[in-house]
Amino acid sequence: MRLGLALGYWGRGPDKTHLDLATEAENLGYDSVWTAEAWGSDAFTPLTWIAAHTSRIRLGTAIAQMAARTPTATAMHALTLDHLSGGRMMLGLGLSGPQVVEGWYGRPFPASPLTATREYVDVIRQVLRREGPVTLDGRFHRHPYRGADGTGIGKPLKPITHPLRADLPLLLGAEGPKNIAQTTRIADGWLPLYWSPTRTDAYRASLAELPEGFMIAPMARAKVCDDVAEGLLPVKAMLGFYIGGMAHAARNFHADLMARMGYEEEARRIQELFLAGRREEAVLAVPDAFADEISLIGPRERIAERLDLWRKGPVTDLLLTAPDPHTLRVLAELNN
């Protein structure tokens, strides 16, 4: 099982520790470093900055939002950074949800998410292969565009720049069972939002037919500390926000996922509290057990025992949201 460093997206401003953490991860032998985006900083610019200050560690977006860019624009970002980094780029993509897509990006959330994802990936694959002009008569993505509001003179094109790799790894951040199953067919890897090494049955049917070399790369917060309860507080704060406030009450993929993992009643209670403006109570309502099983928190010996559980499953890459160099170093030692 390879280790990666997941830096996430910025909050109020740039996090000055990110570059130091990325270079430390490379020095410790970590395989990859990942950036993200929500509705603030983008995923590609910080990753390019990190690429310029490193030489070996692989570079991934976890995740870049599909609604933020057309698939050809996303492919341009990926092939450009792949060239600049000497072939270290991995492209992680996700649909996000209706509130973000329609509220932030000002476009409709696709009525058929699986079809929209499949078309998006198809276009990117065509750009990277560069076997001919990009063409797709899709429901959501049409190349060239032939809508009634267009000019009708769009020309099929292929990229001027020759991509460095036609097989640049493409991963998807899928949550629903059908979306996960499709991911195993059209992508090179899957970026689970929550992964519990003790509840792998939740994904068994979706992962029934894994192709050779397929990456499963969940994120988990890691923190070496003496007080487990205190160490879990940031995990619970994250879960309270994602489960309670990261989507509409009637359509929250994150809450649905928590429910499928055995915490349905708790997920709905977190939503209820968060949407009522009782955010602190929502965070406290997150079960310690759930926060604990999807993270690696506590003294070194405890983390070592729990890390063995992650190794025994199908996870190929464990992406750690580790807040300090000491934790990075301990996990590197334990994983050797």
From TrEMBL:
Residues 17-315 form the Luciferase-like domain. The keyword tRNA processing does not apply. Gene3D superfamilies: Luciferase-like domain. Pfam families: Bac_luciferase. Keywords: Oxidoreductase. GO terms for molecular function: oxidoreductase activity, acting on paired donors, with incorporation or reduction of molecular oxygen. PANTHER family: 5,10-METHYLENETETRAHYDROMETHANOPTERIN REDUCTASE, PTHR43244. This is 5,10-methylene tetrahydromethanopterin reductase. It comes from Streptomyces roseus.
